[in-house]
Amino acid sequence: METISVGIIDVIIVFVYLGAIIWWALKKGKSADSQSYFLAGRSMPWWIVGLSLSAASISSTTLIGQSGDAYHTGLAVFNYNLTGVVVMVFFAIFLLPLYIKSKVFTIPEFLEKRYDERSRYYFSAICIIGNIFLDAAGALYAAALIIKLIFPAADLQLIVIVFALIAASYTIPGGLSSAINAELIQAIILILGSVLLTYFCFIQGGDYFAELFQNNNVLTKLIRPLDDPATPWPGLIVGMPILGIYFWANNQTLVQRVLSSKSIDEGRRGVILTGFLTISTLFIIAIPGVIARNLFPGLEKPDMVYPSMILNLMPVGLLGISLAALLSALISTLSAIMNATSTLFTMDFYSKLNKQSNSKNLVKIGKITSCIVILIAAVWAPQIGKFGSLLKYYQEMLSYISPPIVAAFILGVFNKRTNANGAFIGLIGGLGVAVLLLFFKTHIFGNLHFLLIVPFLFMFSLIVIYITSLFSSKPSSEKLTNTTFSKKDFIEEYYSLKDRAWYKNYLVWSIILLIICALIWFIFR
User: Fold this and answer.
1) pLDDT per position as a tens digit, 305-333
2) Which of 34, 405, 412, 452 could cysteine-pair with 362, CB 3.0–4.6 Å?
3) What radius of gyration, in Å, describes the C-alpha atoms of the chain?
């Protein structure tokens, strides 16, 4: 791999930026008690929630993975983002109010309130494992790829350790407040750097994309044939929404930002803001990835296309800003994962086992957990290179573990007959099938795309949960309070929104979001 020269000005910009982020995050950190450390005191306004959620969600699988997948297979990868926006609207309307009303620290805690502690322990353990081996390790590996592009001789493990220390330096002392305040700066830098990169990318290769679009080339299509290896069209309907609900509505790393909001309305408006920012990734990530096919043909690893664009297209000075933007996404994701995982272990396991533990001790355990999490992720990160692309690694693992969990949440919220026994049996049964697929997938489904396998796992878990629930008693009214959807509350809330100015009404912005999604699907059909 050829060494790419980075000017001293760009290096200075990156180092100044990293130093400023660490200083700012430590200054804004809160660790006086567990609510401050893990949920930032539940005091965040909508715009902070939205920017933080966006920064945490634009992870290595978004910047590195999606641009690489767009380079390799075209715009079809943006379907994950579009479906995600639809899921965000669903989440904001139906699930978010229940999460905030129930005053939970973690999403697994919500499962305990609706079902029992068995489901909580199971889901929390799954989340912790996924956070470490999928998310944290993926972010570290992506950061290492970038540095390796600049300095090919650099040791991959050493690079991983350095980035782990940077994220840990402010996340562990300051908790969620530090993470969120860092993400505010990181979100702004990320948007600025991405817009600049998109501009230079279009200047040098915009004609190539226009020609592809005019010629109706498959690379510019979102809706693909049934036999498409990237995203067969039924997957948009039966697979992506299930993965989207897990990612946006059941994922502690992201939902923890929503739980920090000071009210239900602030949380909803923050999620909708994230939806608009997610739409923008079509222009700042996906389309540039397609254009890069012409600018950088024959890349050995598609995952290298985004850093290649930054290092080859950006002029001196702006290159430093773009590198800082890329590192922003990776570090903010890593910080979010560390805080979420420490919250999961501390509140779902330690606090349950040691019920006499006070608030300050919980903070201490959270900090120790963050250290262990980042250490394990740093050791595992170099192994990800053996799985092919980052996006493939992440999506395939997610497609096996998420359907049973989504089934338990959907039935729990919208069906009052579902009980604790049914949920636990369905979760364990779904896990058993998922493990079976890891070893015998080709024997059962042949070469069927993983997006088309997801609904089978989902329906299996859904049926098992519901049927086994019928063999034991109905859940008590206490289990249904603030954990299940109420049609009466929904109607009352709808009429109360009529008196609110349209620009403050989250439903109006939700409809606008859905219309934009429909237009994008139509234009790039």
Assistant:
1) 888 888 888 888 888 887 887 777 777 77
2) 34
3) 22
CA-nearest of 281, 83, 208, 224 to 525 is 224
Tracing tokens 């009303």 back to the chain, one arrives at 101
pLDDT score for 455: 94
For the whole model, what pTM was predicted?
A: 0.87
Residue 41: phi and psi, rounded to 5, are 70, 10
Q: What are phi and psi of 462, to 5 degrees?
A: -60, -45
What is the residue whose two structure tokens read 């007959």?
417
Bridge partners of 224, per DSSP, are: 232
Cα four-point dihedral sign 345, 349, 354, 356: positive
Question: Does the CA dihedral 462-468-471-476 come out positive or negative?
Answer: negative
Instruction: Give strand pairing partners of 232.
Output: 224
Q: Contact at 8 Å (CB) between 394 and 157?
A: no
3-state SS of 36-51 is HHHHHHHCECHHHHHH
Predicted local confidence at residue 386, as pLDDT: 65
d(CA 166, CA 335): 9
Q: In whole angstroms, what is the distance from residue 128 CA to residue 372 CA?
A: 12
Predicted local distance difference test score (pLDDT) of residue 1: 41
Question: Which neighbouring-strand residues pair with 44?
Answer: 261
Domain boundaries, the chain: 8-391
| Start-to-end C-alpha separation, the chain | 37
Q: Residue 41: what pLDDT?
A: 62
Closest CA to 58 of 253, 302, 286, 333: 333
> Helix, strand, coil % (nearest 5) of the chain?
80, 0, 20
Give the integer Cα–Cα distance in Å for 170 and 282: 31
For 8-391, which CATH class?
A: mainly alpha
DSSP per-residue letters across 156-221 = HHHHHHHHHHHHHHHHHHHHHHHHHHHHHHHHHHHHHHHHHHHHHHHHHHHHHHHHHHHTT-GGG-
Q: For the chain, how many helices (H) and strands (E)?
A: 27, 0
Tell me the per-residue pLDDT of 4-36, one tens digit each, with 9 for 90 and over: 556 788 888 888 888 888 888 888 877 767 777
In sequence order, what are the residues at sequence separation of 6 or more whose Cβ sits closer than 8 angstroms to the Cβ of residue 328? 17, 21, 55, 185, 186, 187, 189, 190, 193
DSSP string covering 122-173? HHHHHHHHHIIIIIIHHHHHHHHHHHHHH-TTS-HHHHHHHHHHHHHHHHHH
Low-confidence stretches of the chain (pLDDT < 70) are 1-6, 32, 40-41, 59-61, 385-396
Main-chain phi, psi angles of 228, to 5 degrees? -65, 130
Sequential DSSP letters for 462-475: HHHHHHHHTTSPPP
Residue 3 confidence (pLDDT): 46
At 448 the three-state DSSP class reads coil
Q: What is the DSSP string of 280-330?
A: THIIIIIHHHHHHHHHSTT-S-GGGHHHHHHHHHSPTTHHHHHHHHHHHHH
